[in-house]
Design a protein that fits this description.
The complex is a heterodimer. Chain A is an alpha+beta fold. Chain A has a single domain, classed as Glutaredoxin, CATH 3.40.30.10. Helices cover 28% and strands 16% of the residues of chain A. Chain A has five helices and nine strands; from the N terminus they run αβββαβαβαβββαβ. Chain B contains six helices and six strands. By secondary structure, chain B is of the alpha/beta class. Chain B has helices spanning 2-20, 30-39, 56-72, 90-100, 115-122, 151-165, and strands at residues 24-27, 45-51, 77-83, 106-110, 132-137, 140-145. The radius of gyration of chain B is 18 Å and the shape is globular. A six-stranded mixed beta sheet of chain B has the order 1-4-3-2-5-6, with helices on both faces. Chain B has a single domain, classed as Glutaredoxin. The chains are: A alpha+beta, B alpha/beta.
């Protein structure tokens, strides 16, 4: 009983430390609409994907080696599945005061250099990722046509070596949805870089204050 | 010119010595770590910290684990630093880090990429974000997710663990 109270108290503390609202999505929850700035300067909402069969929401960033290892695979996911109705929607949840290498200008430059075929939104105010409950980068939430969360976790089972991948979790989950089935697994865990929330620093990225005209 | 050259040659020759200062093991499979854990006696506290060179909060707290090792390491108190760095970036990232940051506890590089399989074996509801610190003593376990703000927080975590299991704590003795 004592253990339980202690761990409950600990998890309570963790929630306070990371996140003001304890709500986070699990399998079967409907993702609420949100609006964030895209690297091209436009404001993009989840509801803009009205006609898509589903959306592959990927929390990713620039400073994390895991995210870097998956960058190419995220691009390939979009190229393969956007034509089938499942586009990637990438969101960078990093606070640029903690990681200046993730500021809006750097995001814009990277998206251009690597020719990201998908929207890459900035959540520098860190309001969207806590709703999802994302804790690391990369962290995938696969939404279906009704924007219900159907899969949460890793892209595949080998971050380090794409050649050694045995399970492509996201692709398998999309295939399951296409067959009208529940993905299996619905949740996977993976090592990744923690999404950090700073204490007492402003949440506005000055490099995004006046986005350049294209 | 020649002196510079000789000097740099000397540095190159000495480099392996500097390297060998930090001994570490590479485990390709999580079960090797489980075996390592199982080797500990039932009254030995294992403090296992999962970290990586690219994880800023992990790096921030490494000095606390050095201090913990310095103050408390004994036959009944072992500190393990389990790095999740990539084996493919050993030369580029991991070794240079170890050269610049001496680590006193035992260092292990865990290179088991199938993390969905082994993460639940550490803790069923661990979400994979590092750092995480695990305490093991016999059948007793406790976890700390996220970084420690200071050394005292780490000591308190261990102290509370011993209070909970009702065993005399080595922490704060003689303070």
């Amino acid at each position: 009983m004592k253990i339980h109270t202690l761990s409950l108290a600990l998890s309570g503390l963790l929630l306070c430390a990371f996140n003001d609202s304890p709500s986070k999505y699990t399998i079967g929850d409907k993702a609420e609409d949100f609006t964030l700035r895209n690297v091209d300067g436009r404001m993009i909402s989840l509801s803009d994907y009205g006609h898509a069969e589903g959306v592959i929401v990927v929390f990713t960033c620039l400073h994390c080696p895991y995210a870097e290892l998956y960058e190419h695979r995220i691009i390939e996911l979009h190229k393969k599945y956007a034509p089938k109705g499942y586009p990637v929607l990438a969101i960078n949840p990093t606070n640029p005061f903690l990681f200046p290498e993730d500021n809006f200008e750097k995001m814009r430059a990277r998206a251009k250099a690597r020719r990201y075929p998908f929207n890459y939104l900035q959540d520098s105010a860190q309001v969207v990722f806590p709703r999802f409950g994302a804790v690391r980068t990369p962290h995938v939430y696969l939404l279906d046509k009704a924007r219900i969360v159907r899969y949460i976790g890793a892209i595949d089972d080998n971050a380090e070596s794409p050649q050694a991948v045995k399970r492509r979790y996201v692709e398998e989950a999309i295939a399951a949805l296409m067959r009208g089935e529940r993905p299996n697994p619905e949740i996977t865990q993976a090592i990744g870089c923690p999404i950090r929330v700073p204490k007492n620093v402003p949440l506005v990225d000055s490099t995004a204050a006046s986005p350049r005209r294209r | 010119m020649r002196i510079v050259y000789t000097f740099s040659l000397l540095l190159v020759l000495l480099a392996p010595c500097a390297l060998s200062a930090q001994v570490f093991k590479i485990y390709d499979n999580f079960s090797e770590l489980e075996e390592r854990i199982a080797q500990a006696k039932s009254n030995t506290l294992l403090v296992i910290n999962f970290w990586a060179t690219f994880c800023k909060p992990c790096i921030n707290e490494l000095s606390y684990f050095n201090e913990l090792h310095q103050r408390y390491a004994s036959a009944d108190f072992e500190v393990l630093l389990v790095s999740l760095d990539f084996k493919s970036q050993l030369e580029k990232k991991f070794l240079p880090f170890l050269r610049s940051t001496p680590l006193q506890p035992e260092v292990i590089l865990l290179s088991d990429q199938n993390s969905d399989e082994w993460i639940p074996r550490v803790k069923p509801d661990w979400n994979g974000a590092i750092p995480v610190t695990l305490l093991i003593r016999g059948a007793e376990r406790d976890y700390h997710e996220g970084e420690f703000e200071n050394f005292k927080e780490l000591e308190d975590f261990i102290q509370k663990f011993f209070e909970r299991i009702g065993e005399p704590s080595p922490v704060y003795q003689g303070n």
